[in-house]
Amino acid sequence: MKNLITIISILLIISCNENKSNQGIKITPSSIKKISITNKVNCSLHNLKPITLEIIDKSEISKIIDTFSLSKKIQGSVNNRANNGSFEISFNDGKTDYYFSLTYTIYDGVILRNNNNGERFKNDKLEGLIYPLFVDDKIE
Question: 55, 34 in Cβ contact below 8 A?
């Protein structure tokens, strides 16, 4: 009986730690005044504007920052070297400078990398918000 209680306790601790490590990115948007996003994508179905966007609209900032919380941490390795470019995202909340890369990898799909600590995440919703900001509607 004592062994059973010990095993259950260990499983609960491991389970709780697993949930904590798989949580999304928690950032409060209220103190962020500007988000900079640079297009470094070199392969796309659309003509993408090769620019850096400065987002200062509070509702747009909130929408983007709130979407970071939907990120799911990736356990294991990712081949980031084979890729079609990325969007570089940076902002400051008054205390911390945040730097992220949203990279289009060849083998692992779209990967969000926290450039401050190297953590990697999946977040297709964030990519769905950012990509359209750079689509050039002009047909050449």
Answer: yes
Instruction: Please give the Cα distance from 65 to 47 (Å, whole number).
Output: 26
Beta bridge partners of 48: 135
Sequence-ordered list of residues with C-beta below 8 angstroms from that of 34, at least 6 positions apart, any chain: 54, 55, 56, 61, 91, 92
Tens-place pLDDT, residues 21-34: 446 678 888 899 99
Q: For residue 67, how many other CB atoms are within 10 A of its CB?
A: 19
How far apart (Å, rounded) are the C-alpha atoms in residues 60 and 62?
A: 5
Structure-token pair, residue 73: 């941490």
What is the reported pLDDT for 18? Answer: 45
Question: Can you give the pLDDT at residue 44?
Answer: 63
